[in-house]
Amino acid sequence: MTTGTTVGDSAAADRIRRAAIEAFAESGYAGSSTRQITKRLNMSATAMYPHFRSKEDLLYAIALDGHRAVLAALRDADDPASPVLDRLTSVVSAFATWQAEFHQLARVVQYELAALTPVHYRTITAMRRDTVAVVAAIVQAGKDSGEFSVDDVDDVVLAISSLCVDVCRWFPSKIHDDPRRLGAAYGRIAQRLVR
Amino acid sequence: MTTGTTVGDSAAADRIRRAAIEAFAESGYAGSSTRQITKRLNMSATAMYPHFRSKEDLLYAIALDGHRAVLAALRDADDPASPVLDRLTSVVSAFATWQAEFHQLARVVQYELAALTPVHYRTITAMRRDTVAVVAAIVQAGKDSGEFSVDDVDDVVLAISSLCVDVCRWFPSKIHDDPRRLGAAYGRIAQRLVR
Prior knowledge:
Two copies of one chain form a homodimer.
Chain A: H1 11-27, H2 34-39, H3 55-77, H4 84-101, H5 103-111, H6 118-144, H7 153-170, H8 179-194
């Protein structure tokens, strides 16, 4: 899993992050202790502290890492020189594919944000705004050029973002278990939302 | 809040359910003890047992109650004698409005299902299938009559259900804080998905 780099960036920090993602995904943030997390690695709780000062610090590192990775995936998928419908399709596909591929990480990132300190929370919500802004810029560009038929840009952008984020809740299902195929289907859904 | 009736149906049981929804919403299911829940009501943990045998029993009662209420809201909103686009609009509006109005309950219901026993989980997933089936029947009817232009019924139904369910994660937001106005916006989004 390559989701970018963050604070506490070392092989040990990476192992702790992965163990924490598993623990939070299974028992929730409030239901997991740093001891339970380090125990998964046969590590003492004190061995974590050089890398992460607290459980909240660990959650923040995971959230930062996840949000950076999503934002990078969307920006990589967007070629501003392409026709606007292709841009939308490509970005939405990348968004949905990422949420499917990293659904366990994404769930932690989505559902445990309220546990962050106010300062950390503000940093993460700024990254979320940047992520939504990638989609919003494309929808607005399509509306401005007359290629998209959109009455309310905010509502269409909300629908697209919400659809992609929610993938991590249900993926995989009986119908969808291939992240790329899901991404393609969601690209077509997004096209319907703007035409 | 009227969300229907369930097991442990009395004023005391209802108060315990509400306290549990608040506790689970704040600290997660794994992060809340029955003692913490009853303490919110100045009640001893043993006073809960005539109503709910365990924390899982309480979660099941909440999930059953929530899923019954959603299903009833969708069925109430659907008039099979109406034109199929009106049916879709009405059902999706009701679905999104419910998720917005009862977002705290809905979050518990959506995110803590994995904590149910296998038997309880199966009962709840059957109710979820019935809920999705209300939407699916309308999309299929519109496709069959040629009024909807839908290539893949499953993907459109997935998108509509996912959009509505995800409302509880983010509602309220800066743009949307009125459940009925949100419902109307989502009705229009659903129309875009089938035309």
